[in-house]
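From: lab user (bench 3)
To: helpdesk
Subject: output format question, protein + JD8

Hello, I'm new to running complex predictions and I'm not sure whether the block I got back is the full result or only part of it. Here's what I submitted:
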Amino acid sequence: MRLDVVSIFPGYLAPLDLSLIGKARRDGLLDLHVHDLRDFTTDRHRTVDDSPFGGGAGMVMKPEPWAAALDHVVQDGTTDDAPVPHLLVPGPGGVPFTQAMAHALAAEPWLAFACGRYEGLDERVYDHAAERMPLTVVSLGDYVLNGGEVAVLAMVEAVGRLLPGVVGNAESLVEESHEGGLLEYPVYTRPASWDDSGTVREVPPVLLSGDHAAIAAWRHEQRVARTAARRPDLAAASATVAGLDDLDVRVAVPADAAELLVLQRACWMQEGRISGSWHIPPLEEALEDVVRGLGEWTTWVARVPSTDGSGRLVGSVRGRVRPDDASVWETGRLMVAADLQGRGLGRALLELGEAGAPQSVSTLWINTGRVSEANIRRYRRAGYRLVPGEGAFPGTVDLTKPRR
Ligand code: JD8
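Helpdesk reply: Thanks, we reran it on our side. This is the complete output you should expect:
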């Protein structure tokens, strides 16, 4: 994965030379480039800021240095496989950065980060960037920092450690907090009995028992108890996501498009990797394509329940009557968030998509990658049968089944 970071404080990113991320860079698993925004100024004072139009406190970052810097990054890193990066701009008003987003971004070949300072970037920089590459404004959390660098340090570490080979024992990634919706269990090491200045502190005996089933059960109980105590919002979510009826399911609206794009990229990166090509529509689509798709297909989104409907978008499916054959119902873009896969959500979403078919339909159709064995098995189990020959798109196969 290639990473580019633009900042007026490039030294702020020095911690990425250390520890696992530093080793991953030396091992060639991460190709990180840090750029000084001032190198893209044209005046002898290397000016990057100016006073805000309309008055107000503080300074605003000028558009020209940013446009020059971002254009340089694209020029410097473009390849056939990854012509442009996914640009992430940290900001207190951005989409919350989550473990699910970290998984999504870890599946992408090239990320770029624009670190703002002062009161932020001239808004036209976002327009300039969005015309050239996918753009997501992302927030580390609901508190105010002085700039984007700290957020980028956190995001590069959270994404980098998910890349194959970065964390030695990938197994240890599985039972962590925010994987599977539960916080992590307490950990202990020697001495089993610790004399803490006269207070003897013991390790829970079950951990010394060698009874792995009992240890696993104790650890899960600890995760559930800790999550309920510290993060009741997470507890509510993870306890209930066993089927669609535990989720807020509704027809998608344009406001869902940004999250749909992130989830769709995550889910199709695996397809891209196993098919050996990133040139597949779900990966190449821009935000406006997703919004247009909402007009051409009936699209359902499934969110974790929340009071204001802003719960995490964890699944989606879409369906439509084939434009040139009203007897065929096409189901597509079936996607489930990485940490919720394997719970039957995909099957439930497929059934939801199929149920949208009007009476005139006699055939249900779906399409997937020719080498996507897991998907083909899943659709066979749902009653579909392979249609001989090439599918509707290069490198794909079609599957159909009669509409019961
Ligand atoms: C980027 C400039 C400072 C923000 C005036 C303070 C992220 N979770 C987060 N909190 N704050 C940021 C963040 C703050 C930034 C910049 C990210 C660029 N500032 C500005 C607006 C109010 N000052 C962040 N991710």
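A quick orientation on your result: The CA atoms of residues 297 and 320 lie 5 Å apart. Let us know if anything else is unclear.
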